[in-house]
């Protein structure tokens, strides 16, 4: 509280708000009565001291204001990450100014013991929420993830051979065989394969928009793919329940992600346990359904002799991405010295 003596000899009291962002320094008059001025000063001081915003508060606002704008799969990933982030950065609540790069490093090291790659995804969402809070004036503290190296990641290098794929198909039910063939022949991600339906067939092609990138794509219904799609549609005519989805169960119900995962796991384990596949059992157990996309790209590049055709089929933005995707699986095909 500041006291100012006027020319009349009377003293007046003021609340000093300090230097503002615009350079001004406002004073709030409190009157000439010292005790009354003191009471007003106390009230203003309490209102002026605003608790520092915490990361936990920003998370809760983000969930209410921004989460619904994300895709369902993205929402699920964020919600999976938040409990881990809040346990570390909001227990006890930490103000933004109190979170430093060293704390981000500590989080990555702690989570690296059990889930190093997942930790990188969680810190990515931490950064998204922090930047969102900065844009809305919740904080102006710089993002502490800047310059912090993430845990080392190694991409998948497993290439599925024709023999390994046939071993799994030999143990698969018909709906799973159809899913494997459709995924391989289209070269699309599992989620994009599962969402394909009859209404996507236009002018002799399968039209889709990839979930991950939003890239539109048309795949000609020729050759083996054309035969497969025709057979899938024809087989559904016998079902009492008629779904528009191309991939359905024995009862005609659209194949879901959990259904596909369970059927693939069962067939893969049966193939690995088959004595005929003893030498390749380890590789069979290492296979994932998503590896079919990489196999499709590799086989397409080898058969066509042009990796750009594989790039177009996969919907990659650049051929460099496809080269990295293919070469890590099987290596570049080269000619001998002589």
UniProtKB/TrEMBL annotation:
UniProt entry keywords in alphabetical sequence: DNA integration, DNA recombination, DNA-binding
Signal peptide segment: none
GO terms under biological process: DNA integration; DNA recombination
GO MF: DNA binding
Top-level taxon: Bacteria
Pfam families registered for this protein in UniProt: Phage_integrase
Domain Tyr recombinase: 155-338
Family: Belongs to the 'phage' integrase family.
Database matches in PANTHER family: PHAGE INTEGRASE-RELATED, PROPHAGE INTEGRASE INTD-RELATED
This protein's name: Integrase
């Amino acid at each position: 509280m500041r006291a100012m003596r006027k020319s009349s000899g009377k003293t007046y009291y003021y609340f000093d708000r300090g230097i503002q962002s615009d350079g001004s320094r406002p004073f709030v008059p409190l009157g000439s009565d010292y005790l009354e001025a003191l009471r007003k000063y106390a009230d203003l001081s309490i209102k002026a001291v605003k608790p520092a915003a915490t990361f936990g508060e920003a998370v809760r606002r983000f969930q209410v204001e921004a989460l619904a704008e994300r895709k369902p799969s993205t929402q699920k990933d964020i919600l999976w990450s938040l409990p881990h982030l809040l346990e570390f950065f909001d227990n006890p609540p930490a103000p933004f100014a109190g979170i430093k790069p060293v704390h981000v490093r500590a989080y990555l090291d702690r989570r690296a013991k059990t889930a190093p790659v997942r930790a990188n995804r969680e810190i990515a969402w931490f950064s998204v929420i922090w930047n969102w809070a900065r844009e809305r004036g919740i904080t102006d503290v710089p993002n502490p993830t800047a310059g912090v190296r993430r845990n080392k990641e190694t991409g998948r290098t497993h290439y599925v051979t024709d023999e390994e794929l046939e071993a799994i198909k030999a143990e698969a039910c018909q709906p799973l065989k159809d899913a494997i063939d459709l995924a391989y022949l289209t070269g699309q991600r599992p989620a994009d394969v599962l969402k394909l339906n009859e209404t996507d067939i236009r002018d002799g092609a399968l039209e889709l928009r990839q979930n991950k990138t939003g890239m539109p794509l048309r795949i000609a219904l020729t050759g083996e793919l054309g035969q497969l799609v025709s057979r899938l549609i024809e087989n559904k005519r016998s079902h009492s329940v008629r779904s528009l989805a191309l991939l359905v169960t024995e009862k005609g119900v659209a194949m879901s992600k959990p259904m596909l995962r369970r059927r693939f796991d069962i067939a893969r384990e049966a193939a690995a346990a088959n004595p005929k596949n003893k030498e390749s059992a380890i590789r069979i157990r290492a296979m994932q359904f998503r590896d079919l996309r990489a196999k499709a790209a590799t086989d397409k590049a080898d058969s066509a002799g042009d990796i750009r055709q594989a790039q177009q089929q996969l919907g990659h933005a650049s051929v460099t991405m496809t080269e990295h995707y293919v070469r890590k699986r099987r290596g570049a095909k080269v000619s001998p010295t002589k």
